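Hey, quick one: can you model this chain's 3D structure?
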Amino acid sequence: MSRLPSTPATRLLREQGVAYTEHPYRYEERGGTAVSARELGLDEHAVVKTLVFEDDRGAPLVVLMHGDREVSTKALARQLGRKAIQICRPEVANRHSGYQVGGTSPFGTRKPMPVYVERSILALPRIYLNGGSRGFLVGISPAEAARVLAATPVDVAIEG
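Sure thing. Here's the predicted structure for all 160 residues.
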């Protein structure tokens, strides 16, 4: 396999001594996790999307969600004790994370943001998250990802 470019995400994982695998694929605009799962022969449920939200005070936060599920923002707001939470517009998400939408990794973000993970993700044997570039996933143990990210489990998944 040819060496992939280093990203803030892969640099952080290496610095933390985390074992991960690299999975490049042919990126398609607006293809999402369905395309990455198809291209890599993975179950979309194990391909985890990194979503940047803002609360009612404008504070950013990250939610890790199964590729085949959506986030209930009402349930998330309730669990976090906020009035409201909404997904960020792409340009705002890019500013918070330092990554381009479609290549947003929860690792090595520009701004430190609290990370929340759908609880059922932690029960999977392996997950695939964006590695910091469009068309590039990293395979990692969910426990290791949660540890590195100091992620808080939540129950906010709805059918996608």
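One thing worth noting: The CA atoms of residues 50 and 64 lie 5 Å apart.
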